[in-house]
Amino acid sequence: MKRFVYVNDDDLSHELYCDNRVSNRKYTLLNFIPKNLWEQFSRFMNQYFLLIACLQLWPLITPVNPASTWGPLIFIFAVSATKEGWDDYCRYVSDKKANEKEVWVVREGSKKLIQAQDIHVGNLVWLRENDEVPCDLVLLGTSESQGVCYVETSALDGETDLKTRSIPPACMGIDSDLLHKIKGVIECPKPDKDIRRFDANLRLFPPFIDNDVCPLTIKNTILQSCYLRNTDWACGVAVYTGNETKLGMSRGVAEPKLTAMDAMIDKLTGAIFIFQIVVVIVLGIAGNVWKDTEARKHWYLLYPDEGPWYELLIIPLRFELLCSIMIPISIKVSLDLVKSLYAKFIDWDKQMVDLDTGTPANATNTAISEDLGQVEYILTDKTGTLTENKMIFKRCCIAGTYFGNENGDAVKDVELLNAINTGSPDAVKFLTVMAICNTVIPIKSPSGIVSYKAQSQDEEALVRAAASMHMDFVSKNSNILDINFNGSLIQYEVLDYLEFTSDRKRMSVVVRDCSSSKIILLSKGADEAILPCAYAGFQTKTFYEAVDQYAQMGLRTFCLAWRELNEDEYQEWSLMFKEANSTLVDREWRVAEVCQRLERDLEILGVAAIEDRLQDGVPEAIETLRKAGINFWMLTGDKQNTAIQIALSCNFVSPEPKGQLLLINGKTEDEVCRNLERVLLTMRITKAEPKDVAFVIDGWALEIALKNYRKAFTELAILSRTAICCRVTPSQKAQLVELLKYCDYRTLAIGDGGNDVRMIQQADIGVGISGREGLQAARAADYSIGKFRFLTRLILVHGRYSYNRTAFLSQYSFYKSLLICFIQIFFSFVSGVSGTSLFNSVSLMAYNVFYTSVPVLVSVLDKDLSEKTVMQHPQILFYCQAGRLLNPTTFAGWFGRALFHAIVVFAITIHSYAFEKSEMEEVSMVALSGCVWLQAFVVTLETNSFTILQHVAIWGNLVVFYIINWIVSALPRSGMYTIMYRLCRQPTYWNTMFLIVAAGMGPVLALKYFRYTYRSSKINILQQAERLGGPIMSLGSIEPQPRTLDTDSLTPLSISQPKSGRNSVFEPLLSDSPNAMRRSFGPGATFDFFQSQSKSSYYPRDKDN
Amino acid sequence: MSNVTTPPMNPNSSPPRKINSHRPTYSRFTQQELPACKPILTPTYVISAFMIVTVVFVPIGLASLFASRHVVEIVNRYDDYCAPYGSRSDKVRFIQSDADKTCNTTITVPKHMKQPIYVYYQLDNFYQNHRRYVKSRSDQQLRNKNYENDTSTCKPEDSVNGTVPIVPCGLVAWSMFNDTFSFSTNNNVKLPITKKGISWKSDRDHKYGKDVFPKNFQNGSLIGGAHLNESIPLSAQEDLIVWMRTAALPTFRKLYGKIEVDLKAGDTINVIMQNNYNTYSFNGKKKLVLSTASWLGGKNNFIGVAYLVIGGLCFVLAMTFTAIYLVKPRRLGDPTYLTWNRSPAGH
């Protein structure tokens, strides 16, 4: 299946393909009501309520006014529909903004400014610098003579460096005026979401010379949502438009997320539903039996001898309606309400405002805050999430002299500055390499400030550092580089770039010094790629040591080298290089081979160390969250050793001997399989050990593992608390999330770039860092925060409180519904099992809507422990993770309490209002008052912290209860006319209330007190400690690794000291493994196992300071 | 806790690029920092709470019991002796026949009874709260003459032959109690019994129309209970109004009238009853009750006993907790209980 795009042909492709209108909307004006209703009714709960409401329209069976169900039902539906409608309108507005953006498009041979939505496949689109690409384009021309342009793809894949895109060879050298008239056909695949592939070909029509098919790759495209940078203009033909672009295809519909709590509440609702059915059946049968045996004797009931055919159903249906309140209709509304308040609390939180940018945290998804408290796995991106994505040159070692060791910043090292000022040749050479051995483009702003555009942040950092040490890379005019060194201008002519590839791990530049005409080769790269190329006899030992030392500090290291070439050598090599560059087969390999011929006999100048700074508080945040029992996986597109380095420096994995890294590498199935099994074996053995074992896997091996050894990998995922996955693609990230979700873990994915979007959407909770890299991830995420460290607060404070509050609120909702329902059931036993409602419609409705909802709603302010205590004892999160506060057991407790309270209320009411007092309306109000009084005390007992609002809500609600009833009692038409005044004048009424409260709450209080004091949970202990101001505050660091604690041991010290000699246990296992080598980070271990630029031995950071 | 508290601005970092206009404004509510009182269940609080309940409840219980004991109550079941002895069906046949149903009895006053003495009739096993029964009435019709035809809720006693509406309609009115009692002292002096003001004033004024007169009542083929004088408006038919206040329980008392003279201990009272109301078909009991009232109403020991029981139980709980507290003291918030044990993998 192919699509043929006719370039610049206005007529041909219009109907075939969609226009460039982007639409993320779910509804249209017309289908909103039916579609929304349909969606709402696909929920079981709503169907149930609708059924009940319809049944209530049948007067024969309805116990109360149907309005008492229809009112809330319509209200609920209106609320959800309004919310959906508003969300959809917001999407519509943002789509509209994108669609109506104006772009230059060639129409009838000339450029016209049209709206982005009118772009059709085949149109020629012109972009200026810094324009956003409106749809997927195949590049045809640029302002640069070499036919390249630079794009920023961060919105697409999260990578912030500039990428080079080039025009297809067939279009080389076409004049920009001629481009208007270009005609041709592009044969390309159907739209897909793979942003790394574009296998197409292009054939230009005469008069454009090249009539051959010209192959196109992803290198020749610029994709939607990228930005054109450092290029005056670029022009391309639209191949995919609208929702069919690579970005549009990969967007996907985000499934509405259901929290674990919602699932549990649904389960409990199901259980209550079954219970209700049982009750209905039992009472229905009892009612029919009573009717047939007893009721006919009661002449005053005038039961007809023959009933209609459905007679047997009437009593069960009545009970069904009577018991329908068992499932509180208000629970959904209350939950939605409190959930949006949780979300607001996140939005409002001052402590989660990123002070650098002023961005507050934002909860886009308001429905899943409880899940934050139940997170078990955090999958995090690295660059930009853990790190600041700001590379800074920190230290260097030039010709054996260390700079920057004293103050930690080589740029400010006086000795280095002196060396530069005095013109020390080594230092100057070093600086020169820093300044010009790169592909950086300096850009001079009108105000004269030079900024640098670099493909790699490292290069930018080096150039910047060189500039601040008076080696200022000022400008680049085609091949001439201007360097301003201490006020004097030095010019270099670039002869060749020996590009960086991940195999070569180094890059070089050949330049000619314009003043002396000397040709110089400048190289920089990873130590293992540069140091072996030193000329024979060169002492590289000091540099190895330097690299080691820097790597141990978690710095990225580069070795810089230099060699003067003589003219002949260069010319000879240059020919070979050109030839290699034009080969069609195995070009990369040929080029690398040729490059290697030049990059030899180098004079090593020194080692530069660059820091990718961790964000503030990342190690502490990770440590706190790990203490809270959350497992971390790092998923990064970055190189393995960089990932490991970062992992070490942010407490992600512990250093040897506490931690252990297991590598899974391999390019073939066999290798991966072998590695996987070895790692698994080690994991199983280590499981019982107090050891931090993490596995490291790269994207290639991961793909094989996921495809062929899914089971083994799943086991590994379950066993491992920590994992580092490097070189993974966005879809692999999403797959890993899915894998963990499949294992029934609650996952949180956090990332900052477009490449994290899919994992963020896939995870139970997606968190986006709204930082430097645009808002792509933040927009797709459920929560966006400014800095990684806010995650601690998000989870431990907001997540935990939300969980606790919802746990109380939902169970309480069931409790109060069950309470009143049980009373109805009991009453049916004294009313001939006929299904009479003790309570009138007004009371029933108000009971659910006012009397019991308001006090419990303020439980959103309840805090069982102070934020400080939670932060000091993150382990307490365990109660939320394990769902200790909402599960069938706790629910059974509430169920029992409802039953007990119903018995108390009913028994006391009918006994104190017996005989001459047993007037229906009065008894009904006494029972209702009893319920309302009890629930006020239940809420009081279950509230941990009383703010003024709690008092107002709880006691105010009681007052409001009386006021409402007094008002209703003042209406002569209402059934309960004067009842409440009558009751309030009776001493018996108040006696009954106190009796109900004392009898109902006494046992509950006694039980709670007993548990609280003698069977206390950790929460209770912390509460006691916190409120009594005990010494417990100092015990914050009682045990840094929850996992390492033996169950019977109380003294943390004995555990955290690893027993010596344990390491050897694993040695034989791994010694014969070629790939899954055990990586040891001990002080004595200096293995050379990372085949890349820096070593990853680890010392505690401050060891050499 | 550097990861929670907002760190000072890094001097090296770039100045704030933009100040977001949506920056949250500070308030104690939004930051969830409202001052809160956080009580915990310390032994002192809990034990004293239980003691307070004891201290409050025992006197109230005693007072209630005392009040209840002061009430003089005479209960006389008459459905049994006012009907011929024999099987139930005999009694049913008797009550449904036209025979003279007058019945006499004498009551001895055990204690001095101060006026007003309330005369109740008590029905047992009578389901005024049955769904079929409670719903079968029309409050509209009772209140307003214009709603005479509003009998849709009154089935099956809504109309005669399906055309003429019954006023008052419905099973409740139809099955009105129709036994009568008259009292005289030993020396045949009639004891006057006041039937005025036995219903709720609010009912008379607002629930029953002054211009609504009974119509077609008990005219059907089935005669239920009492007949009504068609010349008296509903608002003055106090027996009906009392009866229409349906009882919530199958055993209930309804006010028949008031005797507004004191009765001395040892007085004997002759009661002449018309035993018309059929409770024999469903084994219901009928009782005549004479009772004085206290501030808590009629004789009811339940509240007093319950208060004493609850007070006593709270005392026991308080003592138990005190004992446990003394025998096995436990320091609250003891950090030694704070160990974070959990299984290492997959909880």
Automatic annotation (TrEMBL), chain A:
A GO cellular component annotation in the UniProt record: plasma membrane
EC nos: 7.6.2.1
Pfam families in UniProt: Cation_ATPase (PF13246), E1-E2_ATPase (PF00122), Hydrolase_3 (PF08282), PhoLip_ATPase_C (PF16212), PhoLip_ATPase_N (PF16209)
Protein name: Phospholipid-transporting ATPase
Domain P-type ATPase C-terminal, first and last residues per copy: 778-1015
Transmembrane segments: 268-290, 818-838, 844-861, 891-911, 948-968, 988-1010
Enzyme active site: 381 (4-aspartylphosphate intermediate)
UniProt-annotated stretches for the region Disordered: 1043-1074
Protein keywords: ATP-binding, Magnesium, Membrane, Metal-binding, Nucleotide-binding, Translocase, Transmembrane, Transmembrane helix
Residue span(s) of domain P-type ATPase N-terminal: 5-70
Binding positions (ATP): 381-383, 459, 500, 524, 556, 636-638, 727, 733, 755-756
From TrEMBL, chain B:
Record Pfam families: CDC50
Transmembrane parts of this sequence: 45-67, 305-327
Organism whose genome encodes this protein: Tagetes erecta
Renumbered residue ranges of the record's region Disordered: 1-23
UniProt KW keywords: Membrane, Transmembrane, Transmembrane helix
Topology relative to the membrane: Multi-pass membrane protein
Subcellular location as annotated: Membrane
A cellular-component GO term for this protein: plasma membrane
Protein name: ALA-interacting subunit
InterPro entries with a match to the protein in the record: CDC50/LEM3_fam (IPR005045)
PANTHER family: CDC50, ISOFORM A, CELL CYCLE CONTROL PROTEIN 50
Family: Belongs to the CDC50/LEM3 family.
